[in-house]
Amino acid sequence: MEFVSGYRDEFLDFAALLFGWFRKFVTERGAGGASLEGRWRQLEAQIRRLPQDPALWVLHVLPNHSVGISLGQGAEPGPGSGLGAARLLGEEPPLHLRDLSSYVSFVSLDGEEEEEEEDEEQEEKAEEEGAGPEKVEPEEDGEPASTSRESPHEVNPPGEPEEAEQEARGSEDAGPEDKAEEETEPEKKGWRNEAAPLHLSCLLLVTDEHGTILGIDLLMDGTQGSTGRGSGMENLAPRAYALLCHSMTCPMGSGEPRKPRQLTVGDTQLHRELESLVPRLGVKLAKTPMRTWGPRPGFTFASLRARTCHVCHKHSFEVKLTPCPQCSAVLYCGEACLLADWRRCPDDVSHRFWCPRLAAFMDRAGELATLPFTYTAEVTSETFNKEAFLASRGLTRGYWTQLSMLIPGPGMPSHPRGNTPSLSLLLNGDPYQLLQGDGPNLMPAVPPEPPRSLFGSWQDYYTWRGLSLDSPMAVLLTYPLTVYYVITHLVPQSFPELNIQNKQSLKIHVVEAGQEFDLVMVFWELLVLLPHVALELQFVGDDLAPENDQQHYTLQRDGPEVSVRNGSGLSARLGSGTKEKGVRRDLQIKVSARPYHLLQGPKPDLVIGFNSGFGLKDTWLSSLPRLQSLRVPAFFTESSEYGCVMDDQTMAVATGGGTSPPQPNPFRSPFRLRAADNCMPWYCNAFIFHLVYKPTHGSGARPAPGPAPRAPTPAAPSAPARRRRGEKKSGRGARRRK
Asked: Where are the transmembrane segments (predicted)?
């Protein structure tokens, strides 16, 4: 059993969903033959019998004039012949957005050739002179979305799919005759060569009134040399009609097949062309085309609710998914996939082995959902819609955008997803600026007196800090509060000889800290909670941006203000709303953009890692032995008990040691994480454990503990032997979770 829930970037899940749905759409749309027209009649009859969705559906027409897509060959960056969805995401998908950079990049199509600029200017001038009352609102580049197309009488949905499929797939999937024609006449056909970007001329998007994506179609235009209005924007009606049909019979978002109560179209001419087609489906078309539209407060992304089979990875829009009847943890599309997973070899990767363990993990769901917040029931639900929760509370800027696929709000400086913030962001405003939303300040003034007792729960911390239990700040503060809990509770319990609570300075290494450094200012709260301690946090990991390597700056509480300075002496004053009585402590921030085993420097007092996932990255097989040699207290969090078991096994393989029994983290994030192929409870920083080093006089790796598996079904027939999870592969290290 292998999962990446809680680790993989949500944007990658969203991309996989789009590719999967679009691939199925293109395949079914392109299925031709002598019975093509009859198939369309059957499809229309089927749609007319579908239940009606009371929500309004919207067909968006989004032209693209200035952005092209460059597709790489694979490991090497640069333009290439194009990649299919399977090759892009593959069976072992990347775990970081930066891994996509060698495959896909976006390039500007403006200003590269003067001739094309002149052509565009002439087109714009002609359109302005001939604009009629039906002209739609212009895009940012000044070009209207409405274009010249064939008349409605020439629209024929059954005859379009083959041409549409070739446009969507590109020259790589075209037939032999088409390929030969493209090679001899590349400029005429408009397909790109290896040096030119692919142009996505138009995006057709079907959503409901809440913003849920129900279908998507991509109109490819070839190279920049063929971005004329006629090459990619012709014959939209057949493409749009096919997209509408597929969106109703196979909606990308959650829910059963259905047809809308009413449909509105975001393009004047396309609206007119669909007037004779949409009624065939038993759908009412709005009297006039849509002029403006914006998602309602219940905005969501379909990826948050479209789940997959654990074995064949088919999405819920393709098959009906049901959980394992015994553990209720893992989703399957049918008995065949369940049995295949049950009988996997070797035994310790089979569901037969894991089923009783997963059932025990599922029993902890209620305990993990026991939190004091007013919104607990919503955010701990299996169907929790994180995007809607954040948007409804105005949490669309600053650090909140790191938690979702939302774009930063207006007026807020931002940095690209996955990149660390520049120092200028840290030197501007109060230390909680990036933690704010669109409404009133989320963080109250720092209490004038330091805490008189140690906090062991969100309830106690919120009461002292003056936070309302309706505040979502726990989602961001889980990181500094977890560090606080390790220092004040766990280290004294497990390593009392260190006497850590009486130390006036602490050097802490935060390992594999790419995501945590993106939220670096949340760690300012440690100065509030531990005002008597001078802290040094060194963020280490090869996921950190190289330009931040060896950066060093200091956050200081100095009287009524806070000062921040970097190693070059630059400083700024930040209002803190608190007063000190002759006590000055600071927080040192250092950055080392390299794997932990390559880090040089003094031995730390403590090592901490968040949502570690030892089995997901080969560098842990070198970093864990380094920690073994240092024998420093090392605490790690995981997003599930399953992850803790996997980490224990990886530690045994890497060092011969193990991990302590995991315990729930009282300062875990309240947001339940989306799980694509299972129903287990996943939360950021859900559990904490520490490394148990192999005794210096001992030798050999201990076996991973676990209950004996039951076998409710007959044993599987013999199969070729495979490496067990605990074995170390030469040149690769531990197995990756899929």
From this structure: none
